[in-house]
Design goal:
4 strands, four-stranded antiparallel β-sheet, alpha+beta, elongated, Outer membrane efflux proteins (OEP), disordered N terminus
């Protein structure tokens, strides 16, 4: 765990966010809830044992076993379902599938949290790098204004040239203040996700992206994505509910037994008894039929939801893969443009000192350099965000 004085990496921020997130905690509690339901479903197939103590008072003289004034009874009771249309096993299988569903939902929530943290992390870095680029440009404008003022004193520059450069300088300073505000806002978002305040410095670690695979490689992983697996388990739960509803048409067989430790009256010598009950449903007013139709419809809905989730996962991966490939190509092109803009500005400054170009050419080259720097910073951060979104879309994490 990072110390307060250490720079936070993306992995550090994600670990902090996992501990901080109420959504992940809720998903964990839902898993425990399904474990409780699984135990309840098991209990329907297991025997029940209890000890019962009763004492009956009645009006009687006590002259015979039928007129005793007190009839105490103590017994152990045993109850065992023998057959219930296999609904217990269907319920247990459904509970296991529901738990797997909750586990996959938690995994998907963790993946989406990674996207949120990565977006906020690289947004903060983007604003910081943008601010640094603007500060560099501001220093260049200051230097340019000073040079023009010296030339004005020598009569080699017009007053309008100085004012034009100063206007550009003030616009850059105003933009710096705006970016400072956006940097603070982005930092607050990351603080909200991680619970770390003050946030402290950030460390990007390895700034290079790994080599990208083909789109087909990423699409092939759609079926293993956590939300797709969760939808599949939800469909499995719904099918088990159909089995439970079908069990209402089958007879039930139960065994009940009692072992008496104390009895009074004519049954005083009877130590145990057992009863087998067979209940055959003949007419239930359409309740069983309605329950079956409802469960069947829900199963079809769950199947359709699963199929839609699969298709949406594929579309999501295709979209992000295309965006990432385009962002990588754009970042490379903007890096070349930035290199050219830096070289152009350097040459314009040299030519200006030799009086080969006018002041307007230098100002335009400096503005071009500023725009190229900021566009490259934005494209680079956007590429990183698309990369982590694609990792989450294919079911991967850190």
């Amino acid at each position: 765990m990072p110390q307060p004085s250490d720079a936070l990496t993306l992995a550090d921020c994600y670990r902090l966010a996992l501990k901080r997130s109420e959504t992940i905690a809720i998903q964990q509690e839902l898993i425990r809830e399904t474990e409780g339901r699984f135990l309840q479903s098991i209990s329907t197939a297991l025997p029940r044992v209890s000890f019962v103590l009763t004492e009956k008072r009645q009006d009687g003289s006590g002259g015979s076993a039928f007129t005793l004034s007190s009839l105490p009874e103590r017994k152990f009771t045993f109850s065992q379902p023998l057959f219930a249309g296999f609904k217990e096993f269907a319920a247990m299988a459904g509970s296991r599938a529901e738990r797997r569903e909750r586990v996959f939902q938690k995994a998907r929530a963790e993946q989406l949290l990674l996207v949120d943290v990565a977006d906020a992390f690289y947004l903060v870095l983007e604003e910081q790098e943008d601010l640094s680029a603007l500060e560099t440009t501001r220093m260049a404008w200051l230097q340019r204004v000073d040079e023009l003022k010296q030339r004005e004193q020598l009569g080699r520059s017009r007053r309008s040239e100085v004012v034009s450069a100063e206007a550009q300088l003030r616009r850059t300073e105003a933009e710096i203040e705006r970016i400072r505000g956006e940097t603070a806002t982005a930092g607050q978002l990351l603080e909200f996700l991680t619970g770390r305040s003050p946030l402290g410095p950030l460390d990007e670690m390895d700034a290079t992206l790994p080599e990208l695979e083909s789109q087909e490689h990423y699409v092939a992983q759609a079926g293993a994505r956590a939300d797709v697996r969760a939808a599949e388990e939800a469909w499995r739960v719904a099918r088990r509910e159909v089995n439970v509803a079908q069990a209402k048409f089958f007879p039930t067989v139960d065994l009940d037994a009692n072992y008496y430790t104390k009895r009074a009256g004519v049954a005083a010598d009877v130590d145990w008894d057992a009863t087998v009950t067979v209940d055959v449903p003949l007419f239930q007013g359409g309740q069983a039929t309605g329950a079956l139709r409802e469960a069947t419809s829900k199963a079809r809905q769950a199947k359709l939801t699963f199929e839609r989730t699969q298709r949406e996962a594929v579309l999501d991966i295709q979209d992000l893969s295309t965006r990432l490939q385009a962002a990588v190509a754009r970042s490379a092109a903007l890096k070349r443009a930035l290199d050219a803009a830096e070289e152009n500005y350097r040459l314009q400054v040299e030519d200006d000192r030799l009086h080969l170009v006018n002041n307007l050419d230098v100002l335009l080259s400096l503005q071009l350099l500023q725009d190229a720097q900021r566009e490259f910073v934005h494209a680079r951060a956007e590429t990183k965000r698309f990369f982590w979104q694609l990792r989450a879309a294919t079911g991967q994490a850190l």
